[in-house]
Design a protein that fits this description.
The protein is of the alpha/beta class. It contains six helices and five strands.
Amino acid sequence: MLSKILYPTDFSDVSKKALETIKHLGSAGVKSVIVLHVVNEKGFLALEQFAAGDAPKMERELMSDAEKGLDSIAKELEQCGFQVKKRLELGHPLREILRVEEEEAVSLIIVGSHGRSNLEEVLLGSVSEKVARKCKGPILIVKR
């Protein structure tokens, strides 16, 4: 039975479509949703090496923006009757999603098919594709 969903989001349009799918699953027995955003640590390393301005300030702003995005999604899901847990992680997106899947013992992962970085996905494959190959439980990938 589906009771707990992991929803990794990068706040892209496709991840918003995945969110709409989740909203319809309350009637299927889903009780709770873990909303996960992973700030890619490679981005922080690049900021530290190449940022012309104040890298720590930019990092704080990036984390603050991500927290606001998580708050907005959590509010939407709570209005639909779900219990919501927010997780903001710093690391490699694939590793963090798989770690949270295991830690939270989720019933299903629901993720958008493509994120914000389309060029990287063409060259390296999308995070959702990699999660689908390596996750332990079922996954639903919502297409554009």
